[in-house]
Specification:
The protein is of the alpha/beta class. It contains 21 helices and twelve strands. A six-stranded mixed β-sheet has the order 6-9-10-3-11-12, with helices on both faces. The chain has a four-stranded antiparallel β-sheet with strand order 2-1-4-5, with helices on one face. Strand 4 and strand 5 form a beta hairpin. Helix 2 runs antiparallel to helix 4, helix 6 runs parallel beside helix 10 and helix 19 packs across helix 20.
Length: 572
């Protein structure tokens, strides 16, 4: 992650330069104060007091200007670092295949992009604004304190190691607790997300008490870890103050005898006490950074896990960016198996569909229909065989080129927050208003959009929760039609429609898909029986491929599905 600070190298050098000037001005003031006391105030020399006082005011002004400047530049570097990390994480995650997203989990990825980056960013800001000046203050302060009085400086030899040892012990105990805390934050986010998204299911089965208990358990675990961590951290500041006050008292006690014997002046004691406080305050500021370091280190590890994970979807070094055909799709002995699984999800799938043809896919639940659709759009890569679009292997195509050729309506349609217009333009930002209305008419969505108060500019909430399931599906289909691709893929996209609307929609699709390949995944036989070819899946294997009438005679699995849904007359 240090490479993300390289663009801000000049800012960091500026911060260092400003901190050196600010610290030098700050550390010079106690010496001038000692001179003011010994040679001005105690001797009543007004001219000397005014002269030294003016110099001290000038140094205070320099210290303020350079201190503010270093903080400003440090904050810019830290905030820019956080912005770059978030940007990189976002683009990395959006490049993941379904396999990587499922591996991390959506709640964990959200926490890593938001909370974890915030922790690391805060640490970087503290390093740039406070920590850089701390070692400079300690080194310069020790030098000046020894110059004021060597024997008295032995107090620093005892005080600083004690302070570092105490703080180090606390930090070592805190590191594993911060790691546990981030994991528990992930769990709370996951449980909360599940309960919000599945609220209807929870209420339908009267599971509120159980879900309340589940969230309470996750919340309580996080609370216990946070309390334990806070107990460790709360002991840090009193420890620092104790060491500081004991060191100051020891300095006064030792200096009293030296002043009485004439080996030390009052101004030197005042300057030494100031240096002592400044040194220990610098150490304390460093401890504040040390407090944040363990948690930020854990967060940085979690961020690096995401950044170091390579997508299983690998783009060819010399990808093809143009397709000459219109929309031919071919599967050649395609198989897919999840890592570590003993049984493949798909095995030896072969079929071809050309522009103007409709290929339907049917099978029981868990037969691999959605996995096959994900392979077409290359959301995952096949483990065996080849998938070709316009006679070119999808692995050799640039992803953007493939996605422009394929338009997928997923099994669970998702709408983005915005308006009806913005959701349709999501597929093609250059589409005209006529194109949008035409797509809505084909998808049988024009009537209810016309009935909305603002028509195309009517608001859509996140996920499309302010429209019904059937309306959401029709808007998703309209969005796919706006794209005008070469291959349409409908993954059980008609399940929420009544039979009449389903029939009208399929009829309206015929003229606009004459020059495109059409893949329809469905559970209802009535939706697909007029397809040019039907692929029947059973436990990931192709058990039938042909027309409706051919499969009725030659494929027992298909005949069984038809028999469960239709009468003999309807099937014929």
């Amino acid at each position: 992650m240090r490479s993300y600070l390289l663009p801000y190298k000049k800012l960091l050098w500026a911060v260092l330069a400003f901190q050196i000037v600010a610290v030098t001005a700050t550390m010079t003031l106690p010496t001038l104060n000692a001179m003011l006391i010994d040679n001005g105030i105690l001797k009543g020399n007004t001219h000397y007091i005014l002269k030294i006082g003016a110099v001290m005011l000038m140094l205070s002004l320099i210290q303020a200007v350079f201190g503010i400047s270093s903080t400003w530049f440090g904050s810019r570097a830290g905030m820019g670092f956080g912005r770059d990390i978030r940007d990189r994480l976002f683009h990395t995650v959006t490049g993941f295949s379904t396999r990587e997203v499922d591996s991390f989990g959506a709640p964990s990825l959200i926490t890593r992009i938001t909370n974890d980056v915030q922790q690391v960013q805060t640490l970087v800001v503290m390093l740039c604004t406070s920590f850089i000046g701390a070692p400079i203050t300690v080194v310069v302060g020790i030098f000046l304190a020894v110059r004021e009085d060597g024997p008295l400086s032995l107090i620093l030899v005892a005080g600083i190691p004690v302070l570092l040892l105490s703080v180090g012990t606390i930090v070592i105990r805190v590191i594993p607790q911060y790691r546990n805390m981030q994991e528990r934050i992930d769990r709370v986010s996951r449980v909360l997300r599940e309960q919000i998204v599945g609220m209807r299911v929870v209420r339908a089965f009267v599971r509120e008490p159980l879900e309340t208990e589940r969230f309470g358990d996750a919340n309580q675990r996080l609370t216990r870890t946070s309390i334990l961590t806070s107990r460790y951290m709360s002991s840090m500041f009193p420890t620092v103050m104790l060491v500081m006050n004991v060191s100051s008292a020891a300095a006064v006690w030792v200096a009293a005898g030296r002043i009485q014997s004439g080996h030390m002046q009052v101004g030197a004691l005042v300057a030494f006490l100031t240096y002592l406080v400044q040194i220990l305050m610098a150490v304390m500021m460093a401890t504040f950074v040390a407090v944040m370091w363990p948690r930020a280190a854990v967060c940085a590890e979690r961020i690096n896990e995401v950044l170091d994970t390579e997508s299983s979807i690998v783009t060819s070094p010399t990808p093809i960016t143009e397709l000459s055909g219109r929309g031919t799709l071919e599967f050649r002995n395609v198989g897919f198996c999840y890592p570590g699984a003993e049984i493949p999800v798909l095995s030896d799938i072969s079929f071809t569909t050309r522009p103007g043809q409709t290929t339907a896919i049917i099978g029981s639940t868990g037969s691999g229909k959605t996995t096959l659709v994900n392979l077409i759009a290359r959301l995952i890569d096949s483990t065996n065989g080849e998938i070709l679009v316009d006679d070119i292997n999808v692995r050799d195509l640039e992803p953007e080129t493939l996605w422009k050729r394929v338009s997928v309506v997923p099994q669970r349609p998702y709408l983005f927050s915005g308006t009806v217009r913005s959701n349709l333009l999501f597929a093609n930002k250059d589409a005209s208003e006529d194109d949008l209305w035409k797509a809505l008419e084909i998808a049988q969505a024009a009537d209810f959009v016309n009935a909305m108060p603002d028509k195309l500019d009517s608001p859509i909430s996140q996920g499309g929760t302010n429209v019904s399931g059937g309306q959401r599906q029709r808007l998703a289909i309209a969005r796919a039609l706006v794209r005008k691709p070469g291959i349409y893929v409908f993954d059980d996209s008609f399940s929420a429609l009544d039979l009449a609307t389903d029939a009208r929609l399929r009829t309206a699709l015929i003229p606009v898909t004459t020059d495109a390949a059409l893949i329809i995944v469905a559970q209802r036989v009535s939706t697909i029986k007029h397809a040019d070819q039907i692929l029947v899946l059973d436990k990931g294997k192709c058990v039938g491929l042909g027309t409706h009438h051919d499969l009725l005679q030659n494929c027992p699995t298909y005949a069984e599905i038809v028999e469960s849904q239709m009468t003999a007359e309807e099937a014929a």
